[in-house]
Amino acid sequence: MRVAALAGVAVVGAGALILVGANLWIVWQGGRHSVSAVEAAPKAQVAIVLGARVWSPGAPSPMLEDRLKTGIELYKSGRVHKLLLSGDHGQKTYDEVNTMREYVLARGVPSQDVFMDHAGFSTYDSMYRARDVFQVRDALVVTQGFHLARAVYTARALGLDATGVPADLRTYTNETRFALRDWVARVKALLQLHVLHSGPRFLGPVIPIGGDGRATEG
């Protein structure tokens, strides 16, 4: 019994070390390639705005709305020439990306400069598809601070010259829960990127980010 107990403690300890080590590594690496505000962001081809919950058609959650506002600010300040809106449109009854598109168009971003990634089901999928489908080379990645390090780390590990821009414009409900969940998600990211080398759920034809975003409508 004592040996089994010691083995159990060793397994738990190893798991805790992996969890903490993975998080420290990603937070450090992602943080060193992030800025504190829009004004500090470098110029890039595109801002990748990562999707989040929509309450109903046309109604982004506060977290998503702030990502969109930050993306619009990057576009209007001339730091990027295009917006890539990447989210979940896996069902007819749930559509993040068209809600995102309607929001930015209503605030003056021209439709030809708005690209939609309908299969951005995860951070990993979004960055993989940004590289392989949309041919993105350099990007500003827009999301909240708790998610930013993982998003930037993922993008850079996949070969994008990515810089993170935080979209924390208010306090969010359940933000602590999301932040805790990201601890586990960071371990998964390391496995996907460096062990499993898995592809995204969907790829599809190439749609270069330098072209016309209206090709992605639908």
Overall description:
With 218 residues, the protein is an alpha/beta fold. It has one domain: Rossmann fold. Helices cover 46% and strands 16% of the residues. The strands form 2 sheets. It has a 5-stranded parallel beta sheet with strand order 5-4-1-6-7, with helices on both faces. A two-stranded antiparallel ribbon has the order 2-3. A hairpin with a 2-residue loop joins strand 2 (54-56) and strand 3. It is globular and about 65 Å long.
List the SSEs and their pairings.
Blueprint (H helix, E strand, L loop, with lengths): L1 H30 L12 E7 L3 E3 L2 E2 L1 H15 L3 E7 L9 H10 L8 E4 L5 H10 L5 E6 L1 H13 L3 E6 L8 H22 L22
Parallel strand pairs: 1-4, 1-6, 4-5, 6-7
Antiparallel strand pairs: 2-3
Helix pairs in contact: 1-5, 1-6, 4-5, 5-6
What is the highest CATH level, the class? Alpha Beta
List the helices and strands in order: HEEEHEHEHEHEH
Structural class: alpha/beta
Indicate the proportion of strand residues.
15-25%
CATH architecture: 3-Layer(aba) Sandwich
**Cα shape:** globular
- Total separate domains: 1
Mean pLDDT: 91
Query: What's the oligomerization state?
Result: single chain
Helical amount among residues, as a percent range? 40-55%
Total strands: 7
> What radius of gyration results from the CA coordinates?
18 Å
The H-level CATH homologous superfamily, spelled out, is HUPs
Enumerate the spans where pLDDT stays under 50 for 5 or more consecutive residues. 5-15
End-to-end Cα distance, whole Å, is: 61 Å
Largest sheet, in brief, is: 5 strands, parallel
The CATH topology turns out to be: Rossmann fold
